[in-house]
Amino acid sequence: MESIEKIKEMVAQAVPGAAIEIIPSSPAAAQPALLVNRESAVAVACYLKDEPSYQMDFCSCVTGVDYLAKGYIEVVYHLYSVALKQGPVVLKIRAPRELSQCHVPSLTPVWRGCEFQEREAFDLYGIKFNGHPDLRRILMWNEFTDHPMRKDYVPPADYEWEPTPHDDVLKRAKADGGIMPPSAAAAEVKK
Amino acid sequence: MIAEPSTIPAGTISTQTLEISIGPQHPSTHGVFRMDVVLDGEVVRALKPVVGYLHRNHEQIAEKMAWLASMPYTDRLDYFNSMSNNWAYALAVEKLAGIKVPVRAEYIRVIMAELSRLQNHASAIGFLLQDCGAWGTPLLYAFKEREKILDFFETVSGSRMMCNYMRFGGVRVDLNDAMLAMARKIVAEFPKFLDEFEKLMTTNEVVLARCQRVGILPKELAIAGSISGPVARASGVEYDVRKVDKYGVYDRLEFGVPVGPVGDVYDRYYIRVLEMRESIKILQQALRDIPAGPAQAVEVKLRGFKMPAGDGYGRIEGPKGELGFYLVSEGGPKPYRYHIRPPSFINLTVLEDMCIGHKVADAIIILGSIDIVLGEVDR
């Protein structure tokens, strides 16, 4: 496997206009990632898949990470090559946290295996994947309205009684700061 | 008066499509899993898996706990193979933190993981046969053998299924001579069981008729659909994380990677038999070569464990496929992001492609041949 700098150079040559940045990983893991802009993500993915010296034909793992303090959500793709038995190439795409702007292009048309994993990221993080063939909730139920893996998600205070909080219950839950502290819950039970 | 034989030519009776829901409580769905199926007569025209009934947001729970505290939770992912799950998580953490594992611990992990694979594959075949209609008998044959392995796990870790056995930098309990002798006895007896099991099934006419040419998964789709493990190898994808990543001490052990010629349900059955035979080879070598030494790296401070900042992805070849953990650390005592790549979940991606055009009874065995565990699908 070539060094990440070399891959970056090759990708920049093949996909003009792509803004690519190298994101270091944990030093021991040594899996640095390529951060690409949203507009050229599909072109970069296609290049990595089709380029004979990479042949990243196997998209192993797709997930989202919510960086609350930094104000963005990151989608992480781990690519491997079954044909050449090499990898991983880690592809990262960032989108703003606001739900209205939190969208990235779907890579399901490139790798079919992203289908369920992108649905999961949509469900738990609210990332909209443009071009996904069937973007629905997958783990939470359809009537659920929030995205529970976001770092600022507030679980409802009385979720035992109302599985999908809305209106004033939701307002109260957010005002309470989420789940009742154990002592308050115990007091509630005693009453 | 004797009834006239039907004179209506085949294919002229008009049928209508019918949407039915298989599951979530049906026993053949292997747990709380539902398939929304559109049927034309008896033939599947569309199929959408519906999951999430067992969803407990395991990932978020883990993000609120110390690194080591989620180790027992990993047991509950694929509850057939807690040893492999433990290993995958420990491996990912060790990769991020740069922890070196003693050689003896690596051998113990190989022994545990391969024994897990044996009992998983045996039960998976048992369940597949149950789905075919062989009610009980093959499954109980498999469970009889699985019982011996679970007894061994109980002796070593204190629990049959929820082992919570591995730690960062090693394993919780070292194997003593009596335990090793127990493992050797299991491994020595297993081929006999496997021969008997195969005699019952490999050339069984009913198995052949039900399983051959059913639910074919083409090689290209298997790769594009991120399918891993025995399901991918049955379709001819020669890819095994044990060979590619050479984690643990798999580079010191000799074993083959069997691949299937067609990728139908029968191949997915037979590939598991062949993999069990390879696992026995691995176990024989590991039990012969296991060196003396510590079973836990002493320099790893398990209490108050702190992880250097950064992210990383660690994966192993679990019995169901590639089981990976993507972890992000911000240097604290808890993971910032803890993501599991569940093979059962991702292998369901192509379920619809495999089922379309087959009868509804075949959809059941196609699902059985993927070998899913809902604890891992839903997390």
- Helix-and-strand structural type of chain A: alpha/beta
- Do you know the CATH topology of the largest domain in chain A? Beta Polymerase, domain 2
CA-based gyration radius of chain B: 22 Å
* Low-confidence regions of chain B: none
The helical percent of chain A reads 25-40%
Q: Which geometry of chain B do the CA atoms define?
A: globular
Strand order of the largest sheet of chain A: 1-2-5-4-3
Count of DSSP-assigned helices of chain A:
5
Q: What portion of the residues of chain B fall into strands of 2 or more residues?
A: 5-15%
What is the H/E string of chain B?
EEEHHHHHEEHHHHHHEEEHHHH
Counting helices, strands and paired strands, the structural category of chain B is: alpha+beta
Instruction: Bin the helical content of chain B.
Output: 40-55%
> In the residues of chain A, how many domains can be counted?
2
Q: SSE order of chain A, as H and E? A: HEEHEEEEHEHH
**Overall pLDDT of chain B:** 89
**What would you call the shape of chain A?**
elongated
The oligomeric status of these chains comes to heterodimer
Give a short account of the largest sheet of chain A. Answer: 5 strands, mixed
Layout: helices, strands, pairs:
The complex is a heterodimer of chains A (191) and B (379).
Chain A: H1 4-14, E1 20-23, E2 33-36, H2 41-50, E3 58-67, E4 72-81, E5 86-96, E6 103-105, H3 114-125, E7 128-130, H4 167-176, H5 182-190
Parallel strand pairs in A: 2-5, 6-7
Antiparallel strand pairs in A: 1-2, 3-4, 4-5
Chain B: E1 17-22, E2 34-40, E3 43-50, H1 58-63, H2 71-75, H3 82-97, H4 103-132, H5 137-157, E4 166-167, E5 170-171, H6 177-201, H7 205-211, H8 219-224, H9 230-234, H10 241-244, H11 265-289, E6 310-318, E7 321-329, E8 337-341, H12 343-347, H13 351-355, H14 360-370, H15 374-378
Antiparallel strand pairs in B: 1-2, 2-3, 4-5, 6-7, 7-8
Helix pairs in contact in B: 3-4, 4-5, 4-11, 4-14, 5-6, 6-11, 11-14
